[in-house]
Design goal:
The complex is a heterodimer of chains A (1024) and B (356). Helices cover 60% and strands 4% of the residues of chain A. With 1024 residues, chain A is mainly alpha-helical. Chain B is of the alpha/beta class and 356 residues long. Chain B is 52% helix and 11% strand. Chain B is globular. Classes of the chains: A mainly alpha (1024), B alpha/beta (356). Chains A and B meet through α32, α34, α35, α37 and α41 of A and α1, α3, β2, β3 and α9 of B. Chain B: Keywords: DNA replication, Nucleus. Chain B: This is Replication factor C subunit 5. Chain B: It is found in: Nucleus.
């Protein structure tokens, strides 16, 4: 049986709670709206003189009390009409909302009518319907499943092959004749078959298919009948299955002849395949499929009734034959189903593909979740009726719809009132000559302004946070009087300001305004479009002046003006886009912070990224309030009611997709919809997808996610829809890093291409793939050289994309291989080692160059010769003695080092350069600390010959040297005159010279003397 | 206390132990007064630089041995500062432009012009020209080599070039044609034995034939290496008898370990391990070609004869790519992946002819 598991939606309760209060609240809001609560300063300023709000601003506390009383009154009123409102509202809306549902339910509850619709296919009604239902049963988890499976699959395969072949046109004409004569013969038998095809009639009828079916029919004709018999028997055994004919009936009826032929075709290949496939295990079937030819995209995606998967939860595991994972998920969503990633108790079905994850299979077994194969899944969709919901779901749905409509009505009402009000005002002012800012009628406003939430209930998501904001604002004056000492219940009491952070488009600013108004404040907004440098912030809020401070003192000055806006105790400052206070707003954040510490009005700061460096100073002075993206469920009803009002017909699942596609950015969804409205009045799933795609924000992915995407388990599977250019696009997200990431990662997967093998063969295949991938990466490097080398062939970049990234990924894609332990980097792409290793190489190379140039006076070899040939022996002379003999060897070591002009730094570098048994870690461990310090002490005690002075030793004079360039002649003269000192005198000189150099280090000549002396010394020795 | 290799380095042409005909040619060249540009080439450790210095001594007298080192700063067109170490005497200057990688052209242009445009000031100098020695000339970029061309002709009056390279193949033809090519071949075994005996005599001990044989075997015609090994051996076993296992340098043993682990197991995981080890070698300044060569030799030693040609073939193939490309590890890794595949295939299926 198709288990349509009942799920209770929690929404029901919510919606019932809210619905009664709606109308009074709206009234209240409307009333308040009359006060020109400035949305931002500019608007505020201009409205100021015109309206009743003067009372509020002008006379200190009095207006406040009035305000309060107003509210109270309203609340009272609220209560009274509440019951009335509910009743009256409830009634019409309930009746109206029921309508669509009844239509739905009639579909599911009364199976008779659709059955009656069926008659167009006249032959053997009863046989047909029963066998269909049996088929259905078989599909879902019963023991007979396997048999049915074997039948169905081959049928599909055959068909797809047929579909792939392009038949000569001549055949078609032949077919016309044939079919006519044949069809008559077939009729009786087809009647029998009828049922089955109708159940799996996912194929749209194409001439090609028909053609093939005709031909093959002739051979397998008789077998067909026989095959069908056993099914009939089964069917009878379970007669209670609901008839599944509704789906075909709803579809535009295909010409009867064609459909029949299709049926015939589908039944026919079954027979052929039955014999070779006796194994009934689905795993075996999967294995068989894996070895045989796969048919990516072979199956046509079935068309089901709208909402036919509503209330069901699916889990996909493994790789399906013709559908990619994304497509499958989309398919479920299209029919209002839910998809989760791992099976749980709530899962209705698991669709199992090839190479399913072992853990998932175990979970399935344990929880006894029914499984489906791809074919079964398709048939399930196709066969299932739309809107098969149980009572609770229906109720929930009804409630939701009711709510939506109610909200829509409210909106309309409010709009009308506003319009009226606006007109009234206009009229009133007409003759007075007072210039007013014209408020645009609602119909010409943007949806985002028009449907901006006007009360707390209308804010989507973040309810608790918003409420907390409200209480903070209400308690602000109290807290102010107590000097912000009492933290209060939620700890907000000690803050003068609140910092709201969160992604764009989720209603931060709106909430701030709304709550400020609701708490009886006049919000003043300053955002990034206002200059907010230190000076300005200080000025226009006048912390240094008396404005804010003076307000409460004495009765004289009761308010001050900021940027042409009156500020008084009932003003709330909203600083929007605080993180946008950048270069132009020098010192802005600091000044703001200063302001916060002294402020006498509540301040709400809003930013996107709380963790940015700029926000640091605000951390301690503000209460942090993070707004999260509301879930699609939280936004849905609001959007739906707007849509209802706008008479735009979009099903709930499409709305969900839109919301998800826009990352819960309500503003973006509304904007998308309002533009969509211009062209169309309804939207289906595909249009929704398209709309999302068009409006997709262009995000730059990180190399980590790109690598994941490129080498993921199904990245290049046959069902993947991505094209070469899509993948190259990924490379171009970050073309300098992605190749490195791929190179780092390509050995860390278990290639899917080697999955059908096992044991040693798999290993070999894996190696072959890795080798090919490595070759491709190597090719990529050659291309890279042409791009970045002297030739600069940047036009080769796409080629590089293929060679360095796409091709290797295509070879080794597959699930990641756990590389031991659960430590860092054991999961997912790691950061490329190459970068670190390269810079390490560069560093050691520099050190080696240093060593080489010092030794150069004695040694003829270049860098690599020093490293490869000298170093081992040198190590045994200057490093190993310290290891073996400890402190005793220090003298000897230093002697050798002096001989080659090596300093202590060079000694360290020598140690660092070792590998294997000479690696730095090993050696430093082996040398006792005492020896090391003795060595350092001893070395520092004496002066040592130096081959030359590095440029940076004369930091001050360096530039000068560089500028004037070398002056060889001058030096030469000097050198020539100086007698070559003999060894004895040279030794004595060394000390003096070292000191001298420190004193007169700016003199270039001194520098030259030194090495010469040293060289001479070496020479003298050599000559001996 | 110098190492023997430096202690007993010949200083004049007369002291050189082998290639006497070359020595006499150089002597007559320096006496002729028409000293040409010279390109010395030959394998590492054959005595190129020793001969260059000896020639210079012949030209200028012992004054050239008063070496000093200077660090010069160059500014590239992109305003990057480069430090170049320059070794010079009064009569010559020696530089290794390849130290600065792709900016070597700047160094060549600046230094050469500067030297070429100034005349020899020292009136006592035997020659009117100065000598510029360019080390690792085969590592010069094409641009840098091109920059040499005209200078070599134009400033012939003031300056002679001595290029020092391992092979002429990477030196562009115009340069080669402007130079006198002098090949310094690696010494033969006899010649090397002679040198070893000479050193042993100076150090006052006898060198047994067995010892000199094992030294020659491990040094492969590289006299510098031979002398260093000799000294190491003497240090290890002062009597130079018995089992003379020549201590391999650290990187060579490491390469051997890598090769062994390749043959021990062939899998992607192993390749990953090997990658780590190769990184270790490369970052510690072992040139990638040396790594490739050492590992390949070790593998060739150990595998079945049938596989040897293939392994050598691929080693050559990837070495070329390594030189053409920029990220050496990519090619090394591809080579090892290839070797692993071939070897595993051979073990599982048998010999397959895979030269692509």
């Amino acid at each position: 049986m198709p288990p349509s598991t009942p799920r209770k939606s929690t929404k029901k309760a919510d919606s019932e709670d809210y619905s009664p209060k709606k109308s009074p609240e709206k009234k209240k809001v409307v009333k308040k709206e009359e006060k020109p609560a400035g949305k931002d300063i500019r608007g505020f300023g201009s409205q100021q003189p015109t309206s009743s709000s003067k009372a509020v601003n002008g006379t200190g506390k009095k207006p406040i009390t009035i305000d309060d009383s107003d509210e109270e009154e309203e609340e009272k009123i609220e209560k009274k009409p509440a019951s009335k409102g509910t009743n009256s509202k409830h009634f019409p809306s309930a009746s109206s909302s029921k309508k669509p549902i009844t239509i739905d339910s009639s579909d599911s509850d009364t199976p008779a009518p659709p059955n009656k619709n069926k008659p167009p296919t006249p032959k053997s009604k009863s046989a047909a319907s029963t066998s269909t239902s049996s088929k259905r049963k078989i599909l879902i988890g019963s023991e007979e499943e396997e048999e049915a499976l074997e039948d169905v699959k081959p049928a599909k395969k055959r068909q797809s092959i047929g579909g792939g072949l392009s038949r000569p046109a001549a055949k078609k004409s032949a077919y016309v004749d044939e079919s006519e004569s044949e069809s008559e013969e077939e009729k009786p038998k087809k009647a029998n078959n009828k049922a089955k095809p109708s159940a799996k009639k996912e194929k749209s009828v194409s001439p090609m298919d028909v053609d093939e079916s005709d031909e093959s029919d002739e051979d397998d004709f008789i077998d067909d009948d026989e095959d069908d018999k056993p099914y009939k028997g089964k069917t009878k055994a379970k007669p209670k299955a609901p008839p599944k004919k509704t789906t075909p009936a709803k579809k535009p009826a295909p010409p009867p002849k064609a459909s029949k032929k299709e049926e015939a075709k589908e039944t026919e290949p079954k027979v052929e395949e039955k014999k070779p496939a006796p194994n009934n295990n689905w795993r075996a079937a999967a294995a068989a499929r894996a070895s045989g030819p796969k048919n990516p995209g072979s199956r046509e995606i079935p068309e089901g009734a709208p909402d036919c998967l509503a209330g069901l939860t699916f889990v996909f595991t493994g790789e399906m034959e013709s559908l990619s994972r994304d497509d499958a998920i989309e398919l479920v969503k299209r029919y209002s189903g839910k998809v989760t990633t791992s099976p749980s108790g709530k899962t209705s079905f698991v669709v199992v593909g090839e190479n399913a994850g072992a853990s998932k299979l175990a979970a399935i077994k344990q929880k006894k979740i029914p499984t489906l194969t791809e074919d079964e899944f398709f048939k399930f969709i196709q066969g299932r009726e739309g809107g098969q919901l149980d009572e609770k779901q229906l109720k929930a749905k009804a409630a939701e719809e009711k709510k939506v409509q109610q909200q829509a009505l409210e909106m309309e009402k409010r709009e009308k009132e506003e319009e009226k009000d606006r007109k009234r005002k206009e009229k009133a002012l007409e003759g007075t000559g007072i210039a007013t800012k014209k408020v645009a009628p609602a119909s010409s406003q943007l949806w985002t302004t028009r449907y901006a939430p006007t009360n707390l209930k209308e804010i989507c998501g973040n309810k608790t946070v918003v409420e907390r904001l409200g209480t903070w604002l209400k308690d602000w004056q109290k807290n102010y009087k107590s000097g912000f000492k009492k933290p209060g219940k939620d700890g907000t009491g000690i803050y003068r300001a609140i910092l709201i952070s969160g992604p764009p488009g989720i209603g931060k600013t709106t909430s701030a305004h709304l709550m400020a108004k609701e708490a009886g404040y006049n919000p003043i907004e300053l955002n990034a479009s206002d200059a907010r440098s230190k000076k300005l912030v200080e000025n226009f809020t006048n912390i240094d002046n008396t404005s804010l401070d003076g307000f409460f003192q004495g009765g004289g000055i009761q308010s001050t003006s900021v940027a042409d806006v009156q500020v008084n105790s009932r003003t709330c400052l909203i600083m929007d886009e605080v993180d946008g206070m950048s270069a132009g707003d020098r010192g802005g954040v600091g000044a703001l912070n200063g302001l916060i510490k002294k402020t006498r009005i509540p301040m709400i700061l809003i930013c996107n990224d709380r963790s940015s460096q700029k926000m640091k100073p605000l951390m301690s002075t503000t209460f942090n309030m993070t707004f999260r993206r509301p879930s699609p469920a939280e936004i849905r009803s609001r959007i739906m009611s707007i849509l209802f009002k706008e008479k735009l017909k979009i099903p709930a699942n499409v709305v969900d997709e839109l919301v998800k596609g826009a990352n819960s950015d309500i503003r973006q969804v509304l904007n998308m919809l309002s533009t969509f409205k211009l062209s169309k009045d309804q939207m289906d799933f595909d249009e929704g997808k398209e709309l999302i795609k068009i409006n997709e924000k262009n995000t730059i992915m990180t190399p980590f996610t790109i690598t994941d995407k490129l080498t993921g388990p199904y990245a290049f599977s046959k069902t993947s829809k991505e094209t070469l250019s899509d993948r190259m696009e990924l490379y171009f997200h970050d073309f300098s890093f992605v190749p490195l990431f791929i190179q780092e990662h390509y050995l860390k997967t278990q290639p899917a291409l080697a999955n059908n093998l096992s044991g040693n063969e798999q290993n070999l295949k894996h190696l072959e793939l890795a080798s090919k991938a490595a070759d491709s990466i190597s090719d990529g490097d050659l291309v890279d050289r042409m791009i970045h080398g002297s030739e600069q062939h940047w036009s080769l970049l796409p080629f590089h994309a293929v060679q360095s990234t796409v091709k290797p990924a295509s070879l080794i894609y597959g699930p990641g291989r756990q590389s031991g332990g659960g430590g860092f980097g054991s999961w997912g792409p790691a950061f490329p080692q190459w970068l670190g290793q390269n810079s390490k190489q560069g560093k050691l190379q520099r050190q080696l160059t240093d060593i080489q140039i010092r030794m150069r006076l004695k040694v003829s070899g270049g860098r690599s010769e020093i490293r490869e040939q000298y170093m081992p022996l040198l190590a045994s002379k200057v490093i190993m003695p310290l290891v073996d003999r400890g402190t005793d060897a220090v003298e000897e070591t230093i002697e050798y080092m002096d001989e080659y002009y090596l300093g202590k730094d060079d000694w360290d570098a020598l140690v660092e350069l070792g590998v294997d048994t000479m690696s730095e870690g090993l050696i430093t461990k082996k040398i006792p600390t005492a020896t090391k310090s003795a060595f350092t002490r001893q070395y520092n005690k004496a002066d040592h010959p130096i081959a030359f002075h590095k440029g940076d030793m004369f930091a001050a004079s360096k530039k000068k040297i560089a500028d004037q360039g070398p002056a060889p002649d001058n030096e030469d003269v000097f050198e020539e005159d100086e007698p070559v000192p003999d060894e004895a005198s040279d030794k004595g000189d060394n000390d003096d010279e070292a000191d001298e150099i420190n004193d007169v280090s700016k003199d270039k000549l001194i520098k030259a003397v030194k090495p010469k002396g040293a060289a001479a010394k070496g020479k003298a020795k050599g000559k001996k | 206390m110098s190492l023997w290799v430096d202690k007993y380095r010949p200083r004049s042409l007369d002291e050189l132990h082998y290639h006497p005909e070359l020595s006499s040619r150089l002597r007559s060249l320096s006496a002729s007064g028409d000293f040409p540009h010279i390109l010395f080439y030959g394998p590492s450790g054959a005595g190129k630089k020793t001969r260059i210095m000896a020639t210079l001594r012949e030209l200028y007298g012992p004054g050239v041995e008063k070496l000093r080192i200077d660090q010069r700063v160059f500014v590239t067109p992109s305003n990057r500062k480069l430090d170049v170490n320059v070794v010079q005497s009064n009569y010559h200057i020696e530089l290794t432009p390849s130290d600065v990688g792709m900016y070597d052209r700047v160094v060549i242009q600046d230094i050469l012009k500067e030297i070429a445009q100034t005349q020899q000031v020292d009136l006592n100098a035997k020659q009117r020209f100065k000598v510029v020695i360019i080390n690792e000339a085969d590592a010069l970029t094409r641009d840098a080599q091109a920059a040499l061309r005209r200078t070599m002709e134009k400033y012939m009056n003031n300056m002679r070039l001595i290029l020092c390279a391992n092979s002429t193949s990477k030196i562009i033809a115009p340069i080669r044609s402007r130079c006198l090519l002098v090949r310094v071949a690696a010494p033969t075994d006899d010649e090397m034995t002679k040198v070893l005996q000479h050193v042993a005599k100076k150090e006052r001990f006898g060198l047994p034939a067995s010892a000199s044989k094992s030294i020659l075997a491990s040094s492969q015609g590289n006299l510098r290496k031979a002398l260093l090994v000799f000294e190491a051996m003497k240090m290890q076993k002062p009597d130079l008898t018995g089992d003379l296992e020549v201590a391999k340098p650290d990187w060579e043993t490491y390469c051997a370990k890598i090769a062994d682990s390749i043959l021990q197991e062939q899998s992607a995981q192993k390749l990953l391990d090997v990658r780590g080890k190769i990184y270790e070698l490369l970052s510690h300044c072992i040139p990638p070609t040396v790594v490739l060569k050492t590992i390949s030799e070790r593998i060739v030693d150990k595998v079945d004869d049938a596989l040897k040609p293939q392994i050598v073939h691929w080693a050559a193939y990837y070495e070329l790519r390594m030189r053409m490309g920029s990220k050496k590890i990519f090619h090394l890794e591809a080579y090892i992946a290839k070797v692993m595949t071939i070897y595993k295939q051979f073990n599982m299926i048998g010999y397959t002819d895979d030269y692509e």
